[in-house]
Amino acid sequence: MRRSATGPRAAAALVVALLLAGLWFLSGQGSDWFAEGQDAGASSSASTDPDSGLPQIDEDDLPEEARETLELIDDGGPYPYERDGIVFGNREGILPDRPRGTYHEYTVETPGVEHRGARRIVTGRAGEFFWTENHYESFESIQR
Known about the structure:
The chain is an alpha+beta fold. It has helices at 8-26, 29-36, 64-75, and strands spanning 56-58, 87-88, 103-107, 120-124, 129-132, 140-143. The chain has a six-stranded mixed β-sheet with strand order 1-6-5-4-3-2, covered by helices on one side.
């Protein structure tokens, strides 16, 4: 006698499939897929810079060392590191695509680190300021 496909095995398989789909969605992968189908006219998050498309961070929310670096930039120096002010090439392509020479980088000191560390502020020719705490892996647009 043959068993029906609607027995306990099929029910268990369905439960496992639903659980896996739920975990996938909750991990963020599913929500990204769902968001792609939303209307292009839907409003975007207020925490995204409309010019760069990057997340925003308020200057007051930066670490103290980053705020000190911003003051040095505003004052035109002097800078503590020889390489401060050099051209940032944007090889990662995370910042908006601009001609070479548009961006310049400045070191943000990291407590307990004896070298330049990973934290930087990158400035743009049009007065933009960007913050990275992971050596250019990601950026936030600084709101001043």
